[in-house]
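Protein modeling request. Please complete all fields; requests missing the sequence field cannot be processed.
Requester role: graduate student
Desired output: 3D structure, token encoding
Chains: 1
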Amino acid sequence: MRYDDLIQPDNGQPATPIQLIEKSGFESWLASQADAIRTAVQAQKFEGNTGDFAILPGEKPKDWSVVAGVADAKKLAIWSLAKLSDILPEGCYRLTDIDAGDAMVGWMLGQYRYQEYLSEPKLTGARILLVKEPGRIAGSALQATATALVRDLVNRPAADMGPNALEAETRRVAKSYRAEVAVIGGDALESGFPLIHAVGKAAMREHAPRLIELHWGDDRHPRVAIVGKGITFDSGGLDIKPASGMRIMKKDMGGAAHALALAEMIMAAHLPVRLHLLIAAAENSISGNALRPGDVIKSRKGITVEIDNTDAEGRLVLADALAKAVEDKASLIIDFATLTGAARTALGPDLPAMFSNQDEVAEGLLVASKTVQDPVWRMPLWAPYSEMLDSDIADTANSGGSFAGAVTAALFMQKFISDDTAWVHLDTFAWRPTSKPGRPKGGEALGLRAVFRYLTDTYPVR
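Delivered output (462 residues):
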């Protein structure tokens, strides 16, 4: 689907009007309407509640219009129009007396469908919104397209979304922007990226692990590294997950999906940065050579890691990728990872946990998240908890136990970041357990638009 086709400039072409009202103004609005409209409204039990709508008759059968309830009719929230775009008949629509603004993104994503595996896809025509602010169409379509990419990649079953498929998707994106891709995979990882190798070696024959790198941009621009956790399926390893915990572990490459989508947004917007995308891709499987509890692995950075828990594997693959980003002198590193259940316990499925070693960067990201209505919540890099990662025989353990699990995971990763490198870590769920308008159950982009807005604010196109 081309999302920019769903929003088009309003040049006065025929379209069905959509009138938006708030609950507080419903009674006065209803009193001013003709008898036929009041009857239609009452028959459809429309009372101006947010998210509800009614079809209003006109003088002729083709002259019908729509009235919909919103929380704020003067400034639309991003998902205000998502339900309408999902269920209205195909055709062209225009808002009366208001610009769509941020709600353009919701209008587009209200029409998102994941139907790759349906033998009979449900075909529906497009609902096109006409807007008087065409300058915002491209930016809104970019956000919708990137969100849809994350959803598509996360929704795809692990059998079809292994490390090789992540590589193929990266090469596809790179080709569109003449970016360069380099891949180190299989046993070649053992000497340079030993943690990635250790996690992925149990699936070596069918789904060989790899570090996927994409380079784009001018060397004269600030170097920004985007790092993604690409665990394409997580069995938990020898510390195996229960069946209930494994059911949606196809989503454990959600960090990589976010990273790739963000990289494409950066390139499409021509941000003045030297982009370095790193995706650490592996399947955390079980076999005779699987990583064991108690093993000690020497990381790329030289830090030795004792494996306390093989199900804390995401931070291991990220550690080697982060070390590479630091070596290449990134001025800013941002990583995305579906890292801990602790973050979900603390903040729920909708709110990514955000950690940063620099207050200024964290504050800028929080402002950006509010601006684009893509919330993140800052969590502390609480240094005293580092002792939970102590090991008797190695420089560090990979797991800090059950207390403050999201914090200790971030503290583990911070060991691989230099003190003078700005770093942001987003522990994101990448999944929606229930459906909401514009946000169906399944793979989801959380924190993606917030980070992109922060980057556009920090590195504006001149």
